[in-house]
Every structure is written in structure tokens, then in C-alpha cells.
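Try this one yourself first.
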């Protein structure tokens, strides 16, 4: 009887199409929806190690045709070009040179660009406590008529300095909806985070004699009049 039962078990196992557990990799998606005003909204995905889909690992990976730029870019051949920032191609109008390959340090919000140098958020160039100002958006390149995924016109924004020791600002609509964040860096440039425009962006003064700044994002480039 024991031998009969044993052969029965063997026969059943031989015909079994059993499921084998498979470890499925994490899709690499960021936690939740990116809320630009929260730390969760600026999670990983900017590590220097691996490029995102359609992104870059270094500036030489960025070979797309040059996108439209702001009229304030003053784009002579040596003044504008692609850089790779947080694994995204940005068409920069820089203060010095293009072709940077940079990572965003998630702990310090420093922009680390290898041989091109590292710049961290300033702590003494923003005056006293929290400040509030309004800036006018100059849509110098095809960012669209509204902020992506909203019905908020791509026009005026409110800029408020936070209580952080860093020179950090929150960019929001007139109705108070957070659109992005901005850090003024030690070298006078900006590091910004606009989820609707592709994530991490860079910026600088347009040097026009009036407060005006240019911002380069993965999706487009635009200017802010009234902030510098």
C-alpha cells in the first residue's frame, strides 16, 4: 500500500504546473505623486548612476536639435547648449560654459557637476526672514498657456522665501497652489524643481538691468520678471 501511495504522489507532482515565486523589480517609480512642496516630491530619480528613459548619463548624450529659447538667452554659439542635469537634458544659457554633467545631492540640494564644480544653496544672500513677492512669467519657449496638469495660467507666480536656513523659495499660483521650489546657489545661479516641467531645472540672472531670471527645464525654458 505504501508503494502504491508513493507512486501516486510522484505521478501527481510530475503533472503539476506549479507557480514559482518571482522577485519583481521595483519599477523605479517615485513615491506617490510629486508634490513640489514636500520632500516626498523630490525623491530619488536624480542619482548620477543611471539615466532615466529618454534621459542622459552625460552631456554628450544630448543630441536633440536645440529647442526654442528665451529672447534673453543672447544665444551666440558659445553661450548656449546642452547639459545633463539629474539625468535630464537641459538646454542651458549658462554664465560660464555648457556641457555640464551634474547630479543633485538629495541631502544638501547642492548641484554637483564634477570638473565644472559644485555649488550649494546660499545661506546669507537672501536677507532676513520669509519674504513674499510676485513675478511675471515670460513664456519665451513653448511651455504652453497653463502650468502642466493644471488649469493655472502660465503667467504670474508668487515667490516666498521659506524659514529654512538655506536660500530656498516656494513658487506658487496666486491661489496658493504649489508649483515648484527654488534654491539660490552660492555662485548666484538657481536650482529649481518644477514637477510639471520635467523635474530639476537650472537658472540664472538674465543680466538685463531689471530683475529678470531665466530657467531651463527638461520641458522648456522660461523667464521670470521681478525675481533675480
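Now uncover the answer:
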Amino acid at each position: 500500500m505504501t508503494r502504491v501511495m508513493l507512486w501516486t504522489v510522484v505521478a501527481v507532482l510530475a503533472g503539476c504546473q506549479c507557480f514559482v515565486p518571482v522577485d519583481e523589480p521595483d519599477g523605479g517609480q517615485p513615491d506617490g505623486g510629486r508634490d513640489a512642496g514636500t520632500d516626498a516630491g523630490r525623491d530619488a530619480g536624480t542619482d548620477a548612476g543611471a539615466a532615466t528613459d529618454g534621459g542622459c548619463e552625460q552631456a554628450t548624450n544630448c543630441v536633440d536639435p536645440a529647442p526654442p529659447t528665451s529672447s534673453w538667452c543672447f544665444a551666440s554659439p558659445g553661450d548656449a547648449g546642452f547639459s545633463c542635469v539629474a539625468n535630464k537634458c537641459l538646454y542651458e544659457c549658462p554664465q560660464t560654459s555648457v556641457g555640464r554633467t551634474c547630479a543633485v545631492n538629495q541631502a544638501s540640494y547642492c548641484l554637483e557637476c564634477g570638473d565644472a564644480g559644485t555649488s550649494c544653496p546660499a545661506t546669507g544672500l537672501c536677507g532676513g526672514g520669509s519674504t513674499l513677492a510676485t513675478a511675471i512669467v515670460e513664456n519665451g519657449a513653448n511651455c504652453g498657456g497653463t502650468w502642466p496638469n493644471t488649469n493655472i495660467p502660465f503667467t504670474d507666480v508668487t515667490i516666498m522665501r521659506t524659514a529654512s536656513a538655506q536660500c530656498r523659495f516656494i513658487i506658487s499660483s496666486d491661489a496658493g497652489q504649489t508649483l515648484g521650489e527654488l534654491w539660490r546657489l552660492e555662485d548666484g545661479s538657481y536650482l529649481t524643481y518644477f514637477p510639471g516641467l520635467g523635474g530639476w531645472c537650472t537658472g540664472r540672472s538674465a543680466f538685463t538691468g531689471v530683475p529678470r531670471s531665466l530657467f531651463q527645464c527638461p520641458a522648456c525654458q522660461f523667464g521670470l520678471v521681478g525675481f533675480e
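Discussion: The chain has one domain: 46-225. The chain is about 5% helix and 30% strand.
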